[in-house]
Structure formats: C-alpha cells, structure tokens
Design a protein that fits this description.
Order of helices and strands of chain A: HEEHEEHEEHEEEEHE
Shape of chain B: elongated
Order of helices and strands of chain B: HHHHHHHHHEHEEHEEHHEEEEHEEHEEHH
Number of helices of chain B: 17
Largest sheet of chain A: 5 strands, mixed
Radius of gyration of chain A: 17 Å
Low-confidence stretches of chain B: 549-568
Oligomer: heterodimer
CATH class of chain A: Alpha Beta
Strand content of chain A: 25-35%
CATH topology of chain A: Sulfite Oxidase, Chain A, domain 2
Number of strands of chain B: 13
Shape of chain A: globular
Chain lengths: 158, 568
C-alpha cells in the first residue's frame, strides 16, 4: 500500500514538473534592438500548426520523422516579416547567423519531437532546428549542418 | 572498300574508344575524390570533440562554484549543465558524426567511460540539495580524469583529421596529374585522328582529281561521237535528198506497173532513211543537251489531230485501226512544245505498231493536275510481235535489241519526254490490252476574258459578229488597243485576206485565227465561221471555248497516272 502510494506521489511530482516545464518559456524571440518581442512555451509551440519533415542528417541514424512548427511561422508571429537576417542561439551559447530568405525558401522546422517522441534536453531537445535535407540535396552541406542547432532557446532577427 | 579505307575506319574507332575510355576513367577517379571530400567535409568533428571537452569543463566549474558556496550556482544550474554534458556526450552514440568520433576513440576508452560515469552519477546530480557541497565535490572528483583524456582525444581527432585532409590533398593532386595525362592523351588522340583524316582526305582528293580527268575525257569522247553522228547524219541527208528528188523526177515518166512499184519501194526506203537521219540528229542533240524546246500555246485537240494525220497512213498500211481523241478534261489551250510532243507520241505509236506488232492502237489525251496525259492503248497478244518495254521506259540493257535501229525511235521519244520533265509508265487496263502512259507538265491557259480583234471591211458583218459573240467573258478590241488579242477574226474571201492574215500573224503569233466566211488559203486559219452567221454555231465554236474550259475541269479530276503501272 505504502509502495503504491509512493509511486503515485512520484508520478504526481513528475507530472507537476512536466507541467512546470510546459509552462516555462522555452523560446524567446527578440527584435533588432534586442528587445524581447515574444516568448513561447513548449505548450504554445505545440499549439501552433505542426509540419512533418521526414529526413536524415549526420547526427541521427537513417531517416527520421520530425515534427514541429515552421521556423518562418515563429518569426512572423514575432513580427519578423521584414527581417533579413536571423541569429539562433542554443542553451550552451552556441550561435549561428544566416539570411531569413533560407527559412522562406525551405520548410525548416523547429522540431519538438522525433519519431513521435518529444525531444529531451539530454538529447537534442526540447527544440531542434531541422532542415529537409533528404528532400533537398543542396542542403547536405557543412554550411547547413552548422544550422541544425539543438537546444534552441533564442531567436534574434534584424 | 580498299585496305586503306578499312584501316582508317578501324583506327578511327580505336582512337574514339581510347579517348572515351580514358575520359571515363578520369571522370570516375575525380568523382570518387570529390565524393570523399564531400563526406569528410560535411561536419567538422574536431569541433564536436572540443564541445564535449568544453561542456565537461563548464560542468566541473559549475560544481566547483556550488561546492565553494557561490550563490550563482544552484542544484538547478548544476542539473542544467549536467543535461548539456549528457547531450554532448551522447553525440557519439549515433549518426555518421558519432561513427567518426567512435573511430578515433579506440574501444570506447574515453567516450564510453565518460558516458558510463555520467549515467552513474545521475541520481547524485538530480538529488543534489542546496548546500550539499560534499556531494558536489564527490561528483567533481568522479569526472577529474576525463579532462586530460578528452584533451588527448581532441588531439587525436585533430591529427587524424589532418591526416585525412592530407590524404585527400594527395588524392586530389594525383587526380589532377591523371587529368593532365588524360588531357594529353586526348589531345594526342585528336591529333592522330586529324592526321589519319588528313591522309584519307589527301587520298580522296587525288582520287577525285583522277575521276575528274576521266570524266572530262569521257565527256570529250561523247561529244566527239555526237558531233560525228550529227555531221554524218547531215552529210548523208543531203545526197539522200538528191536521190529522192531524182526518184520523184523518174516517177513523172511513163513507167510500167512493175517499175512504179519498185520506184515506190525505193522512195519509201529513202524516206525511212531521211527519218532515221533526223532521229539520229535529234538523239545526238538530246545526248549533248543541245535540244531546245519551244514553249508555245497549242490546242490538245490539234495535237490529237496531228498524230492522227501522221500515223493513220502507217496504221492503214499495217492493216490495223488507229484513233486519237481528247477528253473533256483538256483545256482549250496549254503551254508546251507541240512539235516535239507530236514527235514523241508518233515515235512511240510507230514503234508499238511496226516493231512490237501490236493492233488496234488508240491515243487518248486528257489533262489533270497541271499535266497533259497521253495514253497510247493497244491490243497485245503473247503470240504477236515482240517488244521491249525497257526501250520505252528507259534503262535498256545494252543488248543487240537496244542498239538496233528500231530502238532509235523510242530512245528519241524517251529523251524528248524526259527533257520536257515528263514521265512514261505502263498500265494494263485489261487482260489483252496494254497502255503506255505519257505525262508531261503543261500549264493550262485559261482566260478570264477573251480578247477578240475583228478585221472586216463590211461594218454590217462586223456588227453581226459582235452581236453573235457578245458575252461577259468577251471583249472586243480595236486597232488602237495595245492589248494582244487571243482571237483574230478576218473577213475571208477578199483581196485582203492573205495580206491581213499574214500581217496579223506576225503581230500576234500566239493568237487563234478565225476566218469569217470561206477562206481562199485555209492554212492561214485555225477555225472558220460560216456566212451567213449562225449565232448558236458561233457561240459553240472551238475558239470560244478558250475562255470557259480549262483547269476547273482538270482540278476535279485526280491525276490519271497516280500509282498506276511501272515507273520509268
């Protein structure tokens, strides 16, 4: 009985932590002046229209199914329709900058899950920038490899 | 094909094959190098190895800050660093990047051990409480040995990647050398091919020169032969005319029936010889391309009449029937060489009757699709005479028949028809009849308006003529008009008849001459209108059809000879 009660407590605690994680801002978008214009929780990101991308890359085995909102959609929601450059920053401060036109040209997504399983922080999650590399051969290049930024926490546009 | 030509072809094929093979080898070698470069250049794994090293240092620093009691470090910040380190180290477990990292970490000595340690301390890290400094120190101690090992791993990756790049540079250099060699081989092959072609070209040029010389010599010989033939024919005809003249004089004497018959035979033989000489002259002119055609308007009906006039006596002598006619498709007038066409048709008919022994010959002239078509139809039986179709159709084999005197007529006929741009074919409309079909281009003369000039001394007769001929398609022109009349009508029977007819013939050589009334010299006219004038007869006269008959009828009829019989 005590065991079952303990298990129930652990489950409730995990659910509480999970709900806290969902409620915590997972992604911040800032404008050219560095001002935060929009934050997204994981729940908010999941509530957006989701796009499926089936692709492989150098960091996974074979071809995998990724799912998440389109990167350009996030930018547009944060008022970045006229932006020309974008800078993505990861939790470990790794950052990469590139033209926004690429996000308009290709269906790059902010993947929240791989093969139906949410991306964890100990993996490449919770947000991993994914390009449809299997669909576009020209994306299979070191330049685009460096943009497969994981543990994404911040987007700056200008 | 001579030996040189075979050698050239084989050499050409070998050179092309060699060039293609060399180019193919070069292509695959370079492509392999490029693929290798692309594979190795996609992800810089030195960066990935360094990132693991950096993340470990950051985690250890966070633990150090926590164990030192620094307020900026907390169990949450330690856990965040721990998760990032986990994420970095797990990189080696999958993907091509992981595989390449594993290749440098022999037996998983560093990365596998590090990941095991990370997993081992998970409970401690997750369960870290604020102020639990000793636990943080213990965790930090567990990761202590990995700093140096990761540094050494990064060095191994650095040197390994350098070695890889050096190998690729070496491969690229070799490929470059290979490409240079391939280019040189290709250039040499091309030069060799050019030399072979130049050699061949020189041989062909020399051959062409020899051929040209032979052709000139052959042309010269042929021209000399034709000139000799023409000269001999002319020279023979002159004394033969003398012989015929003398025979004509003898014929005027009182001769016994036996002598008259002999004389007639001698005269006929002489006429035949004159005909043969004329044919030789024509044949010679055709061979040399000297024969000129005269394109003038003529009436197909008159062509049929002329062939009938010339051939009927021959047919009568041979004891068979001959008929010539035109059908309704014929325009009133066409453009062509009347005399040469008559000659060609007469020669064909004569050959078929006299040499081939055919019977019941008929000539039908029709018009279709810009061509005047003549069909010489005859009855032919296997047990009758013999004839050689190739003499009529062309390309006769050089046998004794094709060189016989009987072959001359068909040869001249064939030459004339070809010269006119026409063709000759054979058809067999029924079991016992054969048709020789001759088709020559002839433009139909169809007039929108018939211009008539009337020369009458009697104003009343002129008025009657105009009243009889008046119509939408008819226009009368006077002496003051510059237009050339299609029909000239002259009042016949008077003193002026011949003078007017001859002077108008000079002015309008292509016009149709019509006598109004009975002519004193009928040869000067093509047609006659009887006086008193009957309007219905005049309107139906042949010369009036010039304005109404013609190509409209012909267009409605498909070409008579399309697909029929043998082709020449």
């Amino acid at each position: 009985m005590n065991r079952r009660f303990s298990a129930l407590l652990v489950f409730l605690f995990a659910a509480f932590l999970s709900s806290l994680a969902l409620a915590k801002p997972a992604l911040t978008v800032t404008d050219a002046a560095g001002k935060s214009v929009r934050t997204f929780t994981l729940a908010a990101l999941r509530a957006l229209p989701q796009t499926d991308v089936r692709t492989g890359n150098e960091f996974v085995d074979g071809v995998r199914d990724f799912r998440g909102p389109l990167a350009r959609k996030i930018l547009d929601l944060a008022g970045g329709q006229g932006a020309t450059m974008v800078k993505l920053t990861a939790a470990n401060d790794y950052a990469v900058e590139f033209p926004v036109s690429e996000l308009r040209k290709y269906d790059a997504i902010l993947a929240l899950s791989m093969d139906g399983t949410p991306l964890s922080r100990r993996g490449k999650g919770p947000i991993w920038m994914i390009y449809p590399m299997s669909e576009h051969a020209e994306l299979r290049d070191p330049v685009y490899n460096s943009r497969l930024i994981w543990q994404l926490v911040k987007i700056e546009y200008r | 094909m001579n030996k040189t030509s075979i050698f050239t072809r084989i050499a050409g094929v070998l050179i092309v094959a060699l060039t293609i093979s060399v180019a193919g080898v070069g292509f695959f070698v370079v492509r392999n190098d490029v693929d290798q470069m692309r594979d190795s250049g996609r992800e810089n794994i030195l960066w990935d190895a360094l990132q693991i090293e950096i993340e470990l240092k950051r985690f250890q620093r966070e633990l150090a800050e926590f164990s030192a009691g620094n307020p900026i470090a907390s169990p949450t910040s330690v856990n965040e660093r721990y998760d990032l380190l986990w994420s970095r180290v797990s990189l080696f477990r999958q993907g091509t990047v992981g595989a390449r990292l594993r290749a440098y970490d022999k037996d998983g000595a560093v990365l596998s051990a590090l990941f095991s340690t990370i997993q081992k301390v998970e409970k401690k890290v997750v369960g870290l409480k604020p102020g639990d400094r000793q636990a943080a120190r213990n965790i930090q101690r567990d990761f202590g040995p990995f700093a140096e090992e990761l540094r050494l791993l990064s060095q191994t990756v650095l040197h390994g990647e350098e070695a890889n790049h050096a190998l690729q540079r070496e491969n690229l250099s070799q490929s470059s050398n290979l490409l240079t060699i391939i280019s040189i081989i290709a250039v040499l092959s091309s030069l060799l091919m050019i030399l072979v072609l130049a050699r061949d070209s020189r041989q062909f040029r020399s051959l062409a020169k020899v051929n040209e010389t032979l052709l000139r010599a052959s042309d010269k010989a042929s021209r000399a032969k034709s000139q000799f033939l023409a000269m001999m024919s002319h020279e023979l005809r002159t004394p033969m005319n003398g012989v015929l003249g003398l025979l004509a004089l003898i014929k005027q004497q009182d001769l016994s029936p036996h002598q008259a018959r002999l004389l007639e035979q001698a005269e006929r033989s002489g006429q035949q010889m004159i005909g043969l000489l004329a044919d030789i002259l024509d044949f010679s002119a055709l061979q040399e391309g000297r024969l000129q055609l005269e394109t003038k308007p003529f009436e197909p009906e008159k062509l049929a009449e002329a062939v009938q006039d010339m051939f009927s006596p021959v047919a009568l002598r041979e004891g068979t029937a001959f008929s010539a006619r035109t059908d309704a498709s014929c325009p009133a007038r066409v453009l062509g060489d009347f005399a040469r066409l008559r000659q060609a048709l007469t020669h064909l008919a004569t050959y078929l009757l006299e040499t081939a022994g055919t019977r019941n010959i008929s000539l039908g002239i029709s018009y279709a699709a810009g061509h005047l078509n003549a069909e010489i139809s005859f009855e032919y039986k296997q047990d009758g005479g013999e004839w050689e179709p190739s003499l009529i159709l062309g390309n006769p084999s050089p046998t004794s028949e094709s060189l016989a005197s009987e072959a001359l007529g068909p040869a001249v006929s064939r030459g004339l028809i070809e010269r006119m741009g026409g063709v000759t074919k054979l058809d067999s409309p029924s079991d016992d009849r054969i048709s020789v079909l001759v088709s020559v281009p002839a433009k139909a003369l169809v007039l929108d308006r018939l211009l008539i000039r009337i020369a009458c001394q009697s104003a009343a007769l002129e008025a009657i003529c105009k009243a009889a001929l008046r119509g939408e398609n008819v226009k009368f022109i006077g002496a003051d008009s510059n237009a050339k009349p299609h029909v000239v009508m002259i009042e016949a029977g008077g003193m002026q008849e011949a003078v007017l007819a001859r002077s108008f013939a000079k002015l309008y050589p292509e016009a149709v001459f019509v006598a109004i009334g009975r002519a004193q010299i009928p040869d000067l006219f093509d047609d006659v209108i009887e006086v008193p004038i009957d309007i219905a007869t005049v309107r139906g006269a042949r010369f009036m059809q010039l304005a109404v008959r013609g190509t409209k009828l012909a267009e409605n009829n498909p070409p008579r000879y399309a697909g029929a019989g043998q082709s020449t």
